[in-house]
Automatic annotation (TrEMBL):
Keyword hit for Manganese: no
Keyword Nucleotidyltransferase: no
Protein name: Cation/H+ exchanger transmembrane domain-containing protein
Compartments it resides in: Membrane
Residue ranges crossing the lipid bilayer per the database entry: 15-36, 48-67, 79-98, 110-132, 144-167, 179-202, 208-234, 241-259, 279-307, 319-339, 351-373, 411-431
Keywords, in A-Z order: Ion transport, Membrane, Transmembrane, Transmembrane helix, Transport
Residues in Cation/H+ exchanger transmembrane domain copies: 27-435
Annotated Gene3D superfamilies: 1.20.1530.20
Length: 464
């Protein structure tokens, strides 16, 4: 008999389904990832495509009943939660390989590239939001709010996908890889602040509609009350954005203050037994991720800070095993999970296909051009600018999360949700080949070679 107030365990059938999902996703992701490598593509491309094959586009069409049994709608949150562990560890372990001394020296370059890759997509998002077909937009939602939401859609980057791309292409040690990760973290922070503001405005606008309706029949009352409600919504949006901005600053300050003490504690634990460093790295990553999530930010930003503030100071050889499991088990499940949400059958509708084409073109070109201009303003070469723009183009799961928020607050119709998710897929698939083509033309610096030799410890586990 269960003690009163204690939640019952997961039912055996639901647990079996969950384990089957993980097994199938991992098997298909690994198989497609290895196949992609055979054709000279990064594993990420195959893993994403494997998820698409398992999703409603292929498996869901070939056997709808089997698809619903394996991936029931009510079971997706459990799968998403499990994949988040892989996301957090992937980001933390990649951030741990950042050269902070190099980034301090190039802080101005990071800021210029980050701002370029933020501001130009913001302008493009506003334009796209005002030009979207009326038939694809939710009824009664102000066009300006939709444009504001597409600001966020265009400006964000996906640090987890960027981390996987750099790992697959062997570019984490290159200067351009370091700059891409740092600038992406800057853009993502700004993107989540903007998302908080737009979400608050959308929620307030919905409330304004309700209030306005209540005032119907009283001359001028509807407009007056609705206007007042919109003003309140705008104030609430500003307040939400300010709070998240302050929370991001506080989290950054806490990471700077606690980084060394936490790292010393980890080193002492590893001195007793090396495997303890692995458990400690996971613990710190989870705590930083939870802190960021509690502050209204994306948890991956907390994981990024955990990596750069704490894990970077630990012995890489102690974390090599964790790095291997993350890259070969947890990350492929996450990448296939992104593809699992893609339904390409909606492209049979001409208006949706045209909108996807236009939106993807705007997303790719605005991010590429913005980062390129920022790089050129920093006196970087043509190929360095293209590499930065290509690397920062990945939207990945971050875009999917934003699409889910937009659907929840009423800013997206199901058709536009698919459009945004397809932006995530196409940009994540297009970024690796563009980045590799540009990076191949950038001469290797001796400091990059030295950094690469230091990072080899991440793949060589220390014996205990």
């Amino acid at each position: 008999m269960l003690v009163s107030g204690v939640a019952p365990p997961l039912p055996a059938p639901q647990l079996a389904t969950f384990l089957s999902q993980l097994a199938v996703l991992l098997a298909v992701a690994l198989g497609m990832g290895l196949l992609a490598r055979r054709f000279g593509l990064p594993a990420l491309a195959g893993e994403l495509f494997g998820g698409v094959l398992l999703g409603p586009t292929v498996f869901g069409q070939l056997s709808p009943a089997a698809f619903d049994r394996l991936f029931p709608r009510d079971g997706m949150p459990l799968l998403d939660a499990a994949s988040q562990l892989g996301v957090l560890l992937l980001v933390a372990l990649t951030a741990a390989r950042l050269d902070t001394g190099f980034l301090r020296r190039r802080a101005g370059d990071v800021a210029r590239v980050g701002l370029g890759a933020l501001l130009l997509p913001l302008a493009a998002g506003i334009g796209l939001g005002w030009l979207l077909p009326e038939s694809l937009l939710p009824a009664g939602v102000p066009r300006g709010l939709v444009a504001g939401f597409f600001d966020v859609v265009m400006c964000v980057t996906a640090i987890p996908v960027i981390a996987k791309t750099l790992a697959d292409l062997g570019l984490v040690h290159r200067d351009v890889g370091q700059l891409i990760l740092a600038a992406a973290a800057l853009d993502d922070t700004a993107g989540w602040v903007l998302l908080a503001a737009v979400s608050a405005l959308a929620t307030g606008a919905a409330g304004a509609g309700g209030v306005g309706a209540a005032g119907a029949g009283v001359p001028g009352a509807g407009a007056s009350v609705a206007g007042s409600s919109v003003s309140v919504a705008a104030a609430s949006a500003g307040h939400s954005a300010l709070l998240i901005g302050l929370a991001a600053t506080a989290l950054l300050a806490a990471a700077a203050l606690l980084g060394r003490p936490l790292a010393r504690l980890g080193l002492r634990l590893a001195g007793h037994t090396a495997p303890a460093a692995t458990a400690y790295a996971v613990l710190v990553t989870l705590l930083f991720g939870a802190a960021a999530g509690g502050a209204g930010l994306e948890p991956v930003l907390g994981a990024f800070l955990a990596g750069i503030a704490v894990l970077r100071r630990l012995n890489p050889a102690h974390l090599a095993g964790l790095n291997t499991v993350t890259l070969w088990v947890l990350a492929p499940i996450f990448m296939a999970g992104i593809g699992l949400r893609i339904d390409l059958t909606v492209l049979a509708q001409p208006i949706v296909a045209a909108t996807v084409t236009a939106a993807v073109a705007v997303a790719v070109t605005s991010k590429l051009a913005g980062a390129y201009l920022g790089a050129r303003a920093s006196r970087m070469t043509h190929w360095q600018g293209l590499a930065l723009g290509a690397g920062m183009n990945s939207r990945g799961m971050v875009e999917v999360i934003i699409a889910l928020v937009g659907l929840r607050v009423g800013l997206l119709t199901p058709a536009m949700f698919t459009v945004v998710v397809l932006i995530a897929l196409v940009t994540s698939l297009a970024a690796p080949p563009m980045l590799r083509a540009a990076a191949h033309r950038i001469p290797t610096d001796p400091t990059e070679t030295a950094r690469h030799e230091q990072q080899l410890a991440w793949t060589h586990k220390e014996q205990t």
